[in-house]
Amino acid sequence: MRNPLRRTATLAALAAIVFTAGCATNRKKGDIGYVARDVDTLYSAAKDRLDRSQYTTAAILFDEVERQHPYSVWARRAQLMSAFSYYMGGDYQKSIESSQRFLSIHPGNKDAPYAYYLIALDYYEQISDVTRDQKITQQALDSMNDIIRRYPDSRYAADARLKIDLIRDHLAGKEMEIGRFYERRGQWLAAVVRFRKVVDEYDTTSHTPEALQRLTESYLALGIPEEAKKAAAVLGANYPGSKWYQRSFELMQKHPS
Length: 257
Fold this sequence. Notes:
Strand content: under 5%
CATH class of one domain: Mainly Alpha
Mean pLDDT: 86
Low-confidence stretches: 1-32
Helix content: 55-70%
Number of strands: 0
Largest sheet: none
Distance between the termini: 45 Å
CATH topology of one domain: Serine Threonine Protein Phosphatase 5, Tetratricopeptide repeat
Shape: elongated
CATH superfamily of one domain: Tetratricopeptide repeat domain
Order of helices and strands: HHHHHHHHHHHH
Number of helices: 12
């Protein structure tokens, strides 16, 4: 299933970070093997491939800049450019590795916030639909929170806050999917645990009204009408016009305490 969150990152913001260089154009087309080249020509060759959307080749050439000229100022630039190129090419694991290598060598560099942000985007782009394991989704959430903790006033933190809302909604959706599965099987207690988690931990998401309604019916099925009444009351107080409240209201009418 195509990831519904994929590519929501603003590429214009990414492009603003991409280093540029007014160097000579690449004269060695197609050759990415080890050929000793001066740093300007090698970096320019990599940038040229990036501009032509040849992301994998660009990343390899940026890596070559670092390998052939590890002590030049271009090596630092090339590390991030390699990470960015891998990201654009959809090779998120290599993008993460390049970003982490940059941070291990230049932890206090002015571009460290961008490296952390790129790692978070790499995880974010891999978020899968709710029917699959959500380990990557949790890593994306943790990485976005890490940016906010480290650089709370940065533009990356501002974007991370927006994406966290989407990630939390996605995680809540996974809990709902599991809860509904248990409910269909009549495993009411297991269902309650999942719906309760949505209400307690993801209460600002779009899934909360349904979670409250399903808590109502699950508590009734368990023979705990007082808990059902509480869930229905919270639903009515916060989402009085929703279809979920209407369903809970009808259920409670059939099971007067």
